[in-house]
């Protein structure tokens, strides 16, 4: 376990953070970004080697934590290398994923997510969520989570979000994809533990609520489109609903909103992973971390990615940590129920879930709006 940054030193550090000379944190404005950029210079997503975080104390973690703090607070996302997921493991997961997606649609639909008691399985292109900017949804996915027996009390308490995975009948799919799921889960704990130290929070503040979490792994394939459709948004702009998202991509296409409100290409390479913040860490950090808006424009043709959402135990109540509330920075968020927030937002993404919850006497449901996507709305104006 590396040393923890002292709160006093960390506050001083935060106050002095400068990413590009154009961004600064300003105590008097409650650490909001003070942007003064004319002409605008594209800000690259910071790239961080996190090897020291995995060295079991052999390497000093402090410089890495400081770099993560700068990236997290100034940009709101970062790319990691030295993450410990081997190229072979990543390649094997893609191989299984691609073999699955190449199967006939009828075989894939036998594992349709809407036919399972848990939120697990195949998601076809037609399972289209409610995104105003998404003109050509072009992706299909296979969704998994923590593999829990349905009789387990955690599964029963978490409704559809926890339970047994379902697996395609392919010889190596389960073993290889489970290995990736296990490795990326461990990485998520390493990163969340680092963020506890970045924010000067007690050890296990986040990770102590990740014993049987509603985390998910999505194997994604974006289909090639007609040339005139390629420039359109294939996955609508949104934030993610959990703590962290860890993404490996084989091809470009993912865009992240920078602090100016501009979309920048996430240029993570084959040995790198993109890290986004989710809604729950925004609340927990009282807005020091911001849930990262992102979208996909799949301009290159077929595209594959592996996306892991690091969630919390279903019943976790998240609220701004008292140590991050002050007179200058009052609590900016109401308490939120981690599992219910995820369930609510997934109804926006999955028509089958919205249908399960609908009742004719209630009439047309209100549109599901995320309180964390205000920056996207501002961009659209
Ligand atoms: Fe997302």
Compact overview of the structure:
The protein has 381 residues and is an alpha+beta fold.
What does this structure look like?
The chain is of the alpha+beta class. The chain has one domain (7-380): Jelly Rolls (Sandwich), CATH 2.60.120. It has helices at 7-16, 62-74, 87-101, 105-109, 153-157, 173-198, 227-230, 279-284, 338-349, 351-356, 374-380, and strands spanning 47-49, 77-81, 121-123, 139-145, 216-222, 235-238, 244-249, 254-257, 263-265, 273-277, 294-296, 303-310, 317-318, 336-337. The strands form three sheets. Strands 1-2-10-7-12-5-4-3 form an eight-stranded mixed sheet. Helix 3 (87-101) packs across helix 6 (173-198). It is globular. The model is unreliable at 1-39 (pLDDT under 50). It binds fe (ii) ion. Fe (ii) ion (FE2) is lined by residues 238, 240, 294.
Please tag this protein with its features.
381 residues, alpha+beta, Jelly Rolls, 4-stranded antiparallel beta sheet, 11 helices, 14 strands, disordered N terminus, binds fe (ii) ion
